[in-house]
Amino acid sequence: MATKKSMTSVTRGQSRMLRYTQLLTPLGNRGLQQVLTDFQITNIKKVFFREESRQLNQAQLEKAINECGGISFADGQFDVLFLRINIKRDGYVTWDEFISHLILGFKIQEVSDEAKALDAPISKKPRMVRSNHRHPISVITFNFQVKSDRSCSYSDGSYITCSKDGFINYWSLDLQVERTVQSKCPDLKVTDTWVLSVVCLPDVSVICTSSTERDLRFYDTSAKKFELRVQITSLEYGVCSMCYVFQKDVNEDCKLIMGDMGGNIIILLFSPLNRGPFRSKLGIPLLRVRYDAVLKGMEPGFRIVEFRRLHRDWVRQIEYYYTLNFIVSCSVSHKAIVMRDINENRGIYTYCIPRGAWCFTTADGAVLMASGGPDCLVRVWNPYVTRRPLVIFHGHHTGVISLIMQDKGEILCSLSEDKCIKIWDIPNQACMQTYLGLGAEIGEHAHFTMFYNPDSRQLLIGGLMIAVLPLRPLQSGEHTDGNSHSAAISVVLYNPLFKIILTCGLDSNIIVWDPWSGKRISVVKEAHTRMLHGEIIPVDITAGTFDPGYQLLLTGAYDGSLKTWNFNTGTCLRNMRIERNCEVTGVVWVNGRILAVGWNRHVTEFSDSGGAAGPGGAFSKPWSTRHSDDVLCASARIPQTLATSTYNGELVLWQLETGQPYKQYNVANPTARIKINYNLEKERNLQKPHKILKKGKLVTAEATPPPPPPPQPLNRRRSHRKSIIMKGPQPKIEMALKFTRMPKELVVPDTIMPIRGLAVRCMQFLPSRPMHPKVGSLLVALENGDVQVWSHHISGSFIGAFQAVHGVGDYVLSMASDSNNEYLFTGSTEGYIKTFLLKGFYENTEEKICMPLYRLTFPFLWKRMFEGRAMRTLKDQHRPILLNSYKAHRSIISGLIYIHENQILVSTGADYTARLWTLGGRYLGTLGTFKPWDFIDPDKVVDTTFKLKIPPDIRRVMSSTTCRVLMGEHFVKKLTKKQEAAQAEKELEYKEGTRGIYGKRLEHPILGNYINVPEKTTHKFEISLDSTFPYIPVYQHLIRPAPVELPDISNPMKKDK
């Protein structure tokens, strides 16, 4: 029995392995969550719980996924996947880590959904406009300009605002007052009545107002008039809300739909032919008629339909639902919303809300409706389901007074009495934004009204003033490829382990990108925050780097905070800080240590394990202060040197192992070395003159740096790098402290500003080059546009410099190089990317350069009729050789990285975009674009036959050199009128010559030797026709028969003779 049982188990095991081998499917580019089923995940869970420690190592987890899920992995693919799953980085994966990885995989969304969730719908402050009214605005509407085909749009017309005293203002589309009129009752001479509602009848050029006198006044506005044409008096109740409906067919009646204070709905119908009853009649300047007469049909031209007592309270709002052809009205009663058609054929839909509804809105092109009321709730309805709403949004603290829908019912905007605007995402049932930016000038306790223009996507809120809020604009493919962030991008990194790109921006977002598909993998919003007056405010991210193993991320922010992240899961693992309100400008992560520099003017060291970094168990350890100004950038060559530089041009080289400086210079005078005094004091008086070692002798520096200014609060002292990214290049002169009185009689006035040293904007080590005194291994970009070359050897110093820009006031703000340090890529403040050839440039070795080989890659080197500005400026600069120059962004380029395996350059800028380029300068795409993306193979170099295109924003401002680089010389040259005429003449001459009309005669035989053409004769060709038949109709017109003498039948005797 035992033998039979063991043989059975072996057979089952072999059959199981055979079945799994046959069913194994490669994972490919898919995620585990896309392949594993619920049954397979349950079986993997059982494997975890069979182990005593409830965790699996890499080999065990791979075996479990192969056997239970039937998935195979390519070489090295599971190694990367295991690093993603293993959050603790201890070599073992628990069930919680595994299932968390699957859940995070399901959260990856499409590009369009991610783009909508990045920036806030209302991202700008409101533009306040004076209302030109004595009282708060009660109604904002739009007066369309109707065309001949009875079509209209929100881009052609004018805004109309009205207050309760009857004053009506006409506004242009840019909110400039055009004219002011007033609606007055002709029977009242002393006091005026309140105007309750206003509506425009644009197809007949009429404006209708209703007042507390229970009348309707129709004003003729043709030819910029405002004359009372028709007045309907003696209504039973005052009309408090109106809307107007007209069709494109002129034979269909127009409808003026009204709701009154008695809860009734009144529909006034008339024909729009020849302006209907509103056309001027001879001898009748004003038509006054009672409502009863119109209701009984005694007044020709009008027809009234009434729906009585639909509501128990006065009608707050009434609209016509074009999508369903229904009339919708609301009131503060139990029957809050009523929806019905005019003919009563499709029934009545009643929506019951306990406290009623103050407002509602419908979605154009979608079956969706939303309501708001005094209960502070926003309800979203299916119009055909009246029992309960689809979703209820909570969040308002006062009653909701106005609603609008955007993008076919995807976005809902609500306004409450406390001037709080909330933006709701209806598909995801979430609040996207709470906007509290409406100031007190619009009114505290006044009535507010809201109007939305779908063409300009502007939200107009009326009170004591008019607030104009631009909502998120629609992106047009003719003007942009889309944005990657909602603010300027400050950090861009490439992870070679997971083959992803990571960007951080001034919007405090961390985004992980798949560069091969252009999609977002994950987003961490509000990564750094601070509390201000009880409100959480996002903080700009200014620095970032990966750990040596490329599994964790370190970010530094504007307020001095540092955070480590597991970017695969978006989890913050640790919080640190260098100093409060002290911007972090650079971070370096070496084995076991984290180094940060910033406004505190020294290097701060942390332990990456979270333990003590300084003596006595201190959380951090500051290095000695060797700078007299803010540190702007830092670069490290692991494990040898750390280089730091400041705003006034100081350059210090540090030993990474000991943290001690071994060289100090000032880039304004690079040949003079500043002596470093090693002592036990942590701070030295910086006002004492520096000792400079020049040509082996100690001399005293002529200029002494000013004392450091006192620390300033965060809201007053601006970041150097942030201001550059947002505003462009800064001037080379800055305000400093007042001079102290000089011992001489000359008194320096306070208005004199000292010129500071050259600021260092970025640095780049060349790690593939050896550490040698004559080998340039450190590149330093200065504010004057130069790039200095230094040797970080203990015996090395300044070697040389070259110009890297071709415009006045421009300078390099970012640099990158390939793994072999063959190319140098620079990004400037004007948005230009330049590529320099570093081969043989200060390498202490001579290497032959094959320029024809580089011309195959870089179209910039191709011969042209005239040289561009980039080539002319650097014509006398022989080394390094300029290989490429093109405009990549409209504004500052804040970061560059180069992917060596695929020869792809990634650039980020202050224009919110991250773009991919080939080595030769071809544009590949913008990360996060809404346009179709051409997939890039991650295992191959980008093909030169890749589809050539130009960013739309660059197309409008690019130079001829940029056009040649981006299009690879494949572009249509624009000719002048004279050149076009000359070219047309040449083409005409060529066509005529080829036809043989005026050119050389054709040689014989003309038709070749295949057809024998009869010989050409000069004599007349005789044609003989057979005329034996009595009648030949075909050839009768070709022959002329001889005259025939007819017998004279008058004298028959003559014939006999």
Automatic annotation (TrEMBL):
Source organism phylogeny: Eukaryota, Metazoa, Ecdysozoa, Arthropoda, Hexapoda
Gene it is expressed from: LOC108568152
Pfam families in the record: WD40
InterPro entries assigned to the protein according to its UniProt record, in alphabetical order: EF-hand-dom_pair, WD-EF-hand_domain, WD40/YVTN_repeat-like_dom_sf, WD40_repeat_CS, WD40_repeat_dom_sf, WD40_rpt
Entry-linked PROSITE patterns: WD_REPEATS_1, WD_REPEATS_2, WD_REPEATS_REGION
Organism encoding this protein: Nicrophorus vespilloides (Boreal carrion beetle)
Record carries keyword Repeat: yes
Annotated region (Disordered), positions in chain: 699-723
Protein name in the entry: WD repeat-containing protein on Y chromosome
Highest taxon of source: Eukaryota
